[in-house]
Amino acid sequence: ALAVGDDRSAAVLLAVDAVGVPAAVADAVAARLARSHGIPRERVAVCATHTHTGPQVNGVVPLIFGEPVPPAHQDHLDQYAARLTDGLAKAAARALADRRPGRLAWAEGAVGFATNRRVVEGGRWVKFGEAAAGPVDRSLPVLRVTAPDGTVRGVVANYACHCTTFNGTDNVIHGDWAGAAAEALEAKYPGAVALVVIGCGGDANPAPRGGGAEQARVHG
User: Fold this and answer.
1) What angle do CA 88, 139, 15 make, to 5 degrees?
2) What is the pLDDT of residue 85?
3) Is 109 helix (H, G, I), strand (E, B) or coil?
4) pLDDT tens by residue, 104-123
5) CB atoms within 10 A of CB 87
6) Percentage of the chain modeled with pLDDT above 90
7) pTM of the shown model
8) What pLDDT, in 10s, does the model give residues 17-44?
9) Can you tell me whether residue 217 is helix, strand or coil?
């Protein structure tokens, strides 16, 4: 989580390695922050990396599973939804408590691994694949948070590309390239918090795909 502003204008940005976060969870987190810190709903944003190898969240693209969820598994999903809500609220509270004087800086780079995934033939979409000539957004906006002495305290990066480096045969829990990027940033800047999320990347996949954790690390 990243919290900015004083108590009168505080805002919170949260990021989570999940395929998505439903409004019910985001609203529940915001309601807790409203009660505990007086932060209005419009100042709380919850972003997901859309990794396809994250835990399932109730109410978010259940069609990713190829078969009905057994009742015993659904019980686990219900427990996870409650834990996720609680974890997001606690992360936001920790960020709010850890606010210090500092500086925000913004810049924009570029990354090349996103590739349009909608193959068009004769003016019609025919299948998913790699459409090299299709539109993609390769911009990489980055927000940096530093202490007065220049120490990096936080980084927010956003890239418009699915977190689908892994394929359907990889039965693992992993943050994909966004999770790998966050880990790399936090390793480079000890003590900093990295939030890496995706923008309007619904038509973009990473290329190449496959290769598991190592390829996700390369993309990250």
Assistant:
1) 5
2) 95
3) strand
4) 999 999 999 999 999 999 98
5) 14
6) 82
7) 0.92
8) 999 999 999 999 999 999 999 999 999 9
9) helix
Report how far residue 213's alpha carbon sits from residue 165's, in angstroms, rounded to the nearest whole number. Answer: 8
Dig out the tokens for 3 from the structure: 């919290």
Cα 204 to Cα 187: distance, rounded to the nearest angstrom: 28
Q: Residue 182 is which amino acid? A: A
Cα–Cα distance, 138 to 98 (Å, whole number): 33
Structure tokens at 163: 């977190």
pLDDT of residue 203: 93
pLDDT digits (tens, 9 = 90+) for 162-200: 999 998 788 889 999 999 999 999 999 999 999 999 988
Of 53, 49, 51, 41, residue with least CA distance to 10 = 41
Indicate the Cα dihedral angle 93, 98, 103, 108, nearest 10°.
Answer: -50
Asked whether 81 and 23 are in contact (CB, 8 A), the reply is no
Taking the C-alpha atoms of residue 51 and residue 173, their distance in angstroms, rounded to an integer, is 9
Q: How far apart are CA 111 and CA 32, in angstroms?
A: 37
CB contact at 8 A, 172 and 55? no
Tell me the angle at which helices 176-188 and 212-219 cross, rounded to the nearest 10 degrees.
Answer: 60
Amino acid identity at 104: L
